[in-house]
Amino acid sequence: MVIDYKIMPLLIGRRGAFLQPIAHDVGQFLSHLLNFLLPALAMAVLVPALARVVWWQALKSAGWWRQVRWCAVLNVAALVIGLLVMGRDGAMATYAGLVLASALTVWWTGLR
Q1: pLDDT of the chain along its 112 residues, tens only?
Q2: Which residues are 18's β-sheet partners?
């Protein structure tokens, strides 16, 4: 039996085991996507909620769900821009942009 060593890297994973089925790859992709978006979505819920604790009188008329939606959209945009600019996920400048986007959204939608 002749083994073609040119295709071996395609069949064998990093640790020498055969590659997992495609369903595992889809699950892994969804896990990575969720972990990428989780800081943006958590900040989108927490910042408007905590802002209502501090500025409850000023934010009475502002809709909480409206603020959460806008925060989520702009936070995800901040993460994607940070990923494109920095070339990797998890840079501190990206998270600083996430905090700035959340704070400006709450200010724009309710405090100005």
Answers
A1: 554 445 445 545 555 444 455 556 788 889 999 999 999 999 999 999 999 999 988 888 889 999 999 999 999 999 999 999 998 888 999 999 999 999 999 999 988 7
A2: 12
Angle at 70 (CA atoms; ends 109, 108), nearest 5 degrees: 20
Q: Is 41 exposed, middle or buried (0-12, 13-18, 19+ CB in 10 A)?
A: middle
Separation of alpha carbons 70 and 63, rounded Å: 11
CB 92 within 8 A of CB 69: no
Q: What's the whole-model pTM score?
A: 0.75
Asked if 41 and 72 touch (Cβ cutoff 8 Å), the reply is yes
Tell me which residue of 59, 57, 45, 56 sits closest to 102, measured CA to CA: 45
For the chain, the distance separating the N- and C-terminal CA atoms, rounded to the nearest angstrom, is: 75
| Spatial distance between the Cα atoms of 55 and 1, rounded to a whole number of angstroms | 75
